[in-house]
Design brief:
It comes from Blastococcus mobilis. The protein has about 170 residues and is α/β, with parallel strands linked by helices. It is built from 4 helices and 5 strands; from the N terminus they run βββαβαβαα.
Amino acid sequence: MGLERTSVGLDVHARSVSAAAIDGVTGELIRQRLVPDQRVVLDWVRGLPGPAAVAYEAGPTGFGLARALTAAGIRCEVAAASKIVRPSGDRVKTDARDALLLARLLRLDDIVAVRVPTVAQEAARDLVRAREDVRGDLMRIRHRISKLLLRHGHVYYGGQAWTGKHE
């Protein structure tokens, strides 16, 4: 656990950010709904009693916010979503409750963080995933075409299918 006064939990989505902050000195809870702009989030966190630490769940919004907060000197933990301990019986799931849970877990130093990749590492990962997606798409299309031809009585007897002759 760091020496931060304020623990901030963020539930980050493409169109909104739900924020909850716990002041460790006064116990005050501060909630806010923000637009998903790094500068807006950064300004809001800077306006809290400092120093502050921030946590949000890893997800499709990526690591840009974590990099921006870290570059501004604010400790940021990106939580592994599968490792977040949720209270049993807690069936109601809202953005505000998720943000508060993250703030509480951060305050207790009970966040299992993922490593934030560098921009180059993230770009390489995206490239590899995109290539794998395209290869999968190509295989599905090849199967679809071959099954269509088979349904219409066309069978290829010229050796191995899908060689350079076919592309």
